[in-house]
Specification:
heterodimer, A: alpha+beta, 6-stranded mixed β-sheet, globular, B: mainly alpha, MetI-like fold, 14 helices
Chain lengths: 608, 314
């Protein structure tokens, strides 16, 4: 047999393939030209968009990351589920367009002088999506269900501020002993807390405090949150759930502000990879992505500058020291030296790239009414910081002859590896530290962190659910279950105790500022940057507003008409033609859908 | 005699399923339990009361042996238990809703791989050492060596985003949404089968009984299709067994890139979430499918090659 020689052909094919991928070949990255621009937004006297600028079909396609495990608000965990639940349900309080806590099911409330008793006065005309009236009894039932051991809720820990919640969760007290009850009638309820909890109103706007319909739960058990069963009280109701593909919501006609809700249908599309969402966005299949690929800032900037939305988010990325083991136990100079030798500008400029803010303290900027502590060295040049770092490093007893060897531990994913690598090389360059990178799967990493035995310096990312610095400071309390640092400082703890009981806002903020100062002075962490939320948004989709909690209920959104699109009254059976190609856009489904929209618009005009 | 041998063989193989699965369950059970971190560990550490309630609900507070036997008992009755991460769903339901999409993509890919692959292989073998042969095998080599996480984005870029013919991802049971994932999954297998078929057919064509067939004056077509192809397919069949199992139970890479609601992601997500019952469920399910397909391969072997009989296996 003669020897086949396919090498030449193989080589040719490889070259062709590489040419196709490379920058020199066809530019596949080019912006797609088929998306028409939206018309200018015109607002009416009521501050709402005038009907003539609105697209015929108000359907919104939102990329939503991983599929939620459940839509039971008391059992759900994670961001994807919370986005959908925010559309489906409404708590006693809710969030405005810009993320502020505002009245929801409760019209108003009183807080007692000791900040331990909250009295809520509910709106009297509230209905469930099935038309039944919604009262305080529903909220009482729901809060009890959330802490009931039989529910086995993973998010019930958030309700621990409520009196007796801990005992009920532990099975030591029956659920009716939870500190919630009716006051005068079934539209007035009282919640008693174990102590002042400044973020409590914000907490009530989160899924674990949402009401569920008792008959609904009792009739269907664990399956009550599936489509066809779920009764909810928010702006939308659950219409369909295609496993691992999409969750479809439609407008709830019984919602208290349904006349002001413009979007008729919301499709939450699941994708486990950011790049899948990016591709679907480029094809016009989705209007809103849950994120963007970490490494493609420049490409997005170049091709999708108008669609790319980046805004501050209440999250901090930092590294923590294990204070219970050598070499960092009782060695503040060494910790300070490592902290100073990190050039944040390089990390945010070269690695993360999306406009993350370099950080020198724990609490991210943007939290209402709070200016984070900023140490002196935040204003120094990196040269000055390096100089001081070297001095402290020597003071800690290390030198070229006696170099420091450490392990930098992080979990797989995102930019973690690149950032750890940057730290290692900065420490090597400035201080001659020999670092080993240890990359661990998330749960292994968390367990190691918690055990505080083999960790030295490790990555932490914390995104707060509440607009309150306390949720960042809390985890550094001695013995706190998230205190993986082994930090124990009685004056820090005392400050947090005071924060807990202080009712005067300005004084409370000063106390938190002082606590943050103590924490930073003790060099427990190496702050790196504050998070930003980043996503692509169809320019037609408006009405939402960037906010630090990154919460964007669909009920505030609307879709603009495309420029040059003729304004003809919608004919049943014709696609709206808003320039997008919705996945489920079957002409048959359109029939009759567009007409009620027009009526709704007129209605709302009449009302307002 | 042959028939009796066959029946006996089937019975033995089916009985052999039991110890194999028992071993599989035991190993999987031990491995997932010794993995550090538990199903309820997360960035937000649960208060002890909350954790205790969750562990009680899923019987994780019982002694480990009791959990093991409880699980075995459930599996015998066909119940894989509740999923830890998807509290509304049982593992059986999750498998039932994930498997159809995976099996569709995988099944179509296998069919394409088999027919296109053998077709190319036969074509190339009959033109051994010609330019066509070299170029086909060169391309095939490329197909084998380029991983699917490279092929997939390229296909999306060219066929979906650049040409706009197909959706970039998502799954709605339309043929459009199947084309790219099936193609991506099938390409490496097409290439591999083409090379296998070519090599094996060339070898068979040089054997004595083919020379005999030709000497008898049979047409080349008959020689190849009736006499040479069947035995030449043996290596292809033995490759297809496990490959089919891998394909129809879902490819993690393909499912993630194209957003297919299949079973493959459960392998990875289940393990990462320490969703013990989900991992166990898919492992057992996967085990059963692999064993069954290997069994089918054995039967096909005997049918394709009369030299293999069941008496030998006894």
């Amino acid at each position: 047999m003669t020897r086949p020689r396919p090498n030449f052909l193989l080589a040719t094919a490889v070259v062709m393939l590489l040419a196709a991928c490379g920058d020199k070949g066809v530019d596949f990255g080019a912006r797609l030209q088929n998306r028409p621009a939206p018309v200018e937004l015109e607002l009416g006297e009521d501050g709402r968009p005038v009907p003539s600028v609105l697209a015929e079909r108000q359907w919104v396609y939102r990329g939503n990351g991983e599929e939620p495990a459940t839509l039971d608000p008391h059992k759900s965990v994670g961001l994807p589920a919370s986005h959908i639940l925010r559309d489906l349900f409404e708590g006693l309080t809710t969030e405005s367009r810009d993320g502020k806590v505002v009245p929801g099911a409760a019209l108003r409330w009183n807080i007692s002088r000791d900040a331990r008793t909250y009295t809520f006065y509910l709106r009297r005309d509230l209905l469930w999506s099935n038309g039944e009236p919604l009262t305080a009894l529903d909220f009482i039932y729901s809060l009890r269900r959330a802490v009931d051991p039989a529910t086995a809720s993973a998010s019930a820990g958030a309700l621990l501020p409520i009196l007796n919640a801990r005992e009920v969760l532990a099975g030591e007290l029956p659920v009716d002993q939870l500190g919630v009850g009716l006051l005068d009638d079934e539209y007035t309820m009282q919640i008693t807390l174990t102590g002042p909890t400044p973020y409590f109103l914000g907490l009530l706007a989160s899924p674990v405090a949402y009401p569920v319909n008792r008959e609904n739960v009792e009739a269907h058990g664990d399956a009550f949150s599936r489509p066809g069963n779920l009764v909810s009280n928010g702006a939308y109701v659950l219409k369909d759930w295609k496993p691992r593909a999409s969750i479809e919501l439609e407008k709830n006609p019984n919602f208290r502000e349904t006349s002001e809700t413009i979007v008729d249908r919301v499709f939450y599309l699941h994708a486990e990879e950011a790049v899948t969402e990016l591709n679907r966005f480029r094809l016009g299949e989705i209007d809103w992505t849950s994120g963007v690929p970490d490494s493609q800032f420049h490409w997005l900037q170049e091709h999708y500058a108008d669609e790319l939305v980046v805004s501050p988010w209440t999250g901090s990325y930092f590294f923590g020291f294990n204070l219970t083991q050598p070499p960092f136990a009782d060695n503040p100079s060494l910790r300070m030296a490592l902290n100073l030798a990190v050039d944040r500008q390089i990390i945010t400029g070269k690695v993360t790239q999306f406009g993350e803010q370099p950080s020198y303290s724990l609490v991210p900027p943007g939290i209402e009414g709070y200016v984070p502590f900023s140490p002196d060295y935040a204003d120094w040049s990196q040269e000055e910081r390096n100089h001081e770092a070297r001095r402290l490093f020597e003071q800690a007893g290390y030198s070229e002859e006696n170099p420091l060897r450490i392990e930098i531990r992080y979990n797989t994913g995102g930019n973690n590896k690149k950032i750890a690598l940057a730290l290692a090389s900065m420490w090597k360059q400035v201080l001659g530290v020999n670092s080993t990178l240890v990359n661990e799967e998330f749960r292994v990493f968390l367990q190691n962190r918690q055990q505080k035995v083999i960790t030295q310096v490790f990555r932490v990312g914390w995104i707060s659910d509440y607009n309150d610095p306390y949720s960042f400071l809390e985890m550094f309390r001695s013995g706190h279950r998230r205190n993986d640092f082994g930090y124990a400082n009685s004056s820090f703890d005392a400050l947090l105790d005071e924060v807990g009981t202080e009712r005067v806002r300005a004084r409370r903020e000063r106390l938190m500022f002082e606590a943050e100062r103590v924490l930073i002075a003790d060099n427990v962490i190496i702050p790196i940057y504050s998070y930003v939320s980043k996503r692509l948004v169809n320019p037609h989709l408006r009405g939402w507003q960037p906010n630090v909690l990154d919460r964007h209920p669909t009920r505030f959104m609307f879709k603009l008409r495309s420029k040059g699109e003729e304004i003809i009254p919608a004919e049943p059976g014709l696609p709206a033609g808003d320039g997008l190609t919705p996945l489920e856009a079957l002409p048959g489904e359109d029939a009759g859908e567009d007409m009620p929209v027009a009526e709704d618009k007129e209605e709302s005009e009449d009302v307002l | 005699m042959r028939r009796e041998g066959l029946m006996r063989h089937v019975a033995t193989r089916l009985l052999g399923l039991v110890p194999t699965l028992l071993l599989l369950i035991t190993i999987a059970f031990v491995l997932i339990r010794v993995a550090p971190g538990g199903p309820f560990d997360g960035e937000v550490t649960l208060p002890p009361e909350v954790r205790a309630n969750l562990e009680a609900k899923y019987h994780l507070d019982e002694p480990i042996l009791q959990q093991y036997f409880r699980y075995l008992g459930d599996v015998v009755t066909g119940d894989f238990g509740p999923s830890f991460r998807y509290p509304d769903w049982s593992v059986n339901e999750l498998i039932a809703r994930g498997f159809p999409a995976s099996a569709t993509v995988g099944g179509l890919a296998i069919l394409i791989a088999f027919f296109v692959g053998t077709g190319i292989g036969v074509f190339a073998a009959l033109r051994q050492n010609t330019a066509i042969d070299y170029s086909l095998m060169g391309v095939a080599m490329l197909g084998i060596s380029v991983p699917n996480f490279v092929i997939a984005p390229l296909l999306i870029l060219v066929l979906a985003i650049y040409a706009g013919w197909l959706p970039a991802g998502g799954w709605d049971w339309s043929w459009q949404s199947m084309v790219l994932p099936v193609l991506t999954l099938a390409l490496p297998a097409v290439a591999y089968i083409a090379r296998l078929t070519r090599g094996s057919l060339i070898e068979v064509l040089h054997s004595d009984y083919i020379r005999t067939a030709r000497a008898k004056g049979l047409a080349e077509r008959v020689v190849v299709l009736r006499h040479a192809l069947k035995p030449a397919l043996l290596p292809v069949i033995s490759y297809l067994g496990p490959t089919a199992a891998v394909m129809i139970t879902g490819s993690v890479v393909i499912e993630r890139i194209y957003g297919i609601p299949g079973l493959g992601s459960y392998f990875v997500q289940g393990a990462l979430n320490r969703d013990y019952t989900l991992v166990m469920g898919v492992v057992v399910f996967y085990g059963i499918i692999i064993i069954l397909l290997n069994f089918v391969v054995d039967l096909l072997y005997a049918w394709l090659d009369p030299r293999i009989g069941y008496e030998e296996i006894r």
